[in-house]
Amino acid sequence: MRPPSQDNPLAFRIGDLFRLMKASFDSKDGPDVTRAQAKLLLSVWRNPGISQQALAARLDIATMSVCRQIDALEERGMVERRTSDSDRRVKCLYVTEKTAPIIDRVMDHVQEVSETFLSPLSAEEQETFLSLLERITEDAIARKAGGKK
Q1: Distance separating alpha carbons of residues 24 and 112, to the nearest angstrom
Q2: Strand ordering across the sheet containing 91-95
Q3: Are strands 91-95 and 79-83 parallel, antiparallel or unpaired?
Q4: Distance CA 58, CA 54 (A)
Q5: Which domains does the chain have, with CATH numbers?
Q6: How much is the pLDDT for 88?
Q7: 13-63: per-residue pLDDT in tens?
Q8: What number of CA atoms fall less than 13 Å from residue 99's CA on the CB side?
Q9: Residue 110 — very low, low, confident or very high, per pLDDT cuts 50/70/90?
């Protein structure tokens, strides 16, 4: 018989936590964008001039999915596509000034959700947990890139 800790392995626990955080993010009190749109907006905001292909790679989603999301955000005046100076075929993405308040709301909402989910932990435990999570994430990214086996 397995120890109780193995009945709910890390993958299931992370999956459950993700599902609960996603539901919390998508609550009626959240920002006026979907979680997927928020991720795109934040990535474009942090990486002005990023191409759609590079954004898709960064977020690990299909280029066509990025294109559809960008179409919707562009229609709302939140993102604009500009032709690359070095390659006319490439469209570079930028957030518009209209997006600043939404970015602020998204960041505030992310902070609120994070604080809610971390609240059972002490400040020291939170710091340790986030540090360990960052290390696990960095290692997983390196493995995916082929840097480690």
Answers
A1: 10
A2: 50-51, 91-95, 79-83
A3: antiparallel
A4: 6
A5: 27-98 (1.10.10.10)
A6: 87
A7: 888 888 888 887 776 666 678 888 888 999 999 999 999 999 998 898 998
A8: 25
A9: confident
| Assigned token pair, 76 | 């709302």
Tell me, what amino acid is at 92? C
Q: Backbone phi, then psi, for 82, in 5-degree steps?
A: -125, 145
Parallel/antiparallel/unpaired status of strands 50-51 and 91-95: antiparallel
Contact 21, 113 (CB under 8 A): yes
Residue 59 class from Cβ within 10 Å (0-12 exposed, 13-18 middle, 19+ buried)? middle
Residue 84 reports pLDDT greater than 90: no
CB 40 within 8 A of CB 59: yes
What mean pLDDT, rounded, does the chain reach? 87
Residue range 122-138, pLDDT digits in tens = 999 999 999 999 999 88
Look-up of token digits 């390196």: 142
The reported pTM is 0.74
- Sorted by sequence, the CB contacts under 8 Å of residue 82 that are 6+ apart come out as 49, 91, 92, 93, 94
- 45, 49, 82 from 86: Cα distances, Å: 21, 12, 12
Q: Which tokens belong to 111?
A: 């902070």
The amino acid sitting at 121 is L
